[in-house]
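step=predict obj=Glutathione S-transferase n=212
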Amino acid sequence: MSGYKLFYFPGRVGGEKCRLAFAAAKIDYEDNRLADEEWAKEKASGRSPFGQMPFIVTPEGKTLGQSVTVMKYICKIGGLCPANRFDEATADMITDQVGDLTLPLINIYNEKDETKKEQIRKEFYGTTLPARLEKFEALLKNRDEGKGFFLGEKLSYADITFFDFFNNFHSKGKEDVPGELEKFPLLVEHYKRVLNVPEINEWVKKRPVTEF
């Protein structure tokens, strides 16, 4: 064991990008999946930096929270960070944009009024998401005509973030290519390319099956 410990709830949701990063970076870790009562005790200990999960504890006993920050940290120590500053900024841009796409999903899930829920859903899937996917596909095509990853031949945290968004929230953790990508052939191939990274594929196949 490397000595890293990840703390999150039993499901995928916000912690899965961290697990995917650990897998892709070939870093062993302790995957602590806390039920509500266990989390209440852990939270009371004050160890989580902001009283939230996911967070990690390093081999030195240091703690780090926030899912994207944790994922990027894992990728940096695992050699999955772009080599130059502009490419790193581009990876951050992609990661931030995926984060922006997550917010409407949260709004859809939390909306109690069924009429408003359907309006938000229609706007997101009919207008917002397709428009953003056009931009993502253009970014991908700018590198090697879309034959590799977002930043070239090497996997980075930008690819992990994009894959996780669709695999986690749209394919429900299964290997299927989500229907939302069907009109974007380069993104379909990108999804498959990330899924076929041996360490990621192994993790997706063996991870616990959960609803969320």
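step=describe
The chain has a mean pLDDT of 97.
step=end
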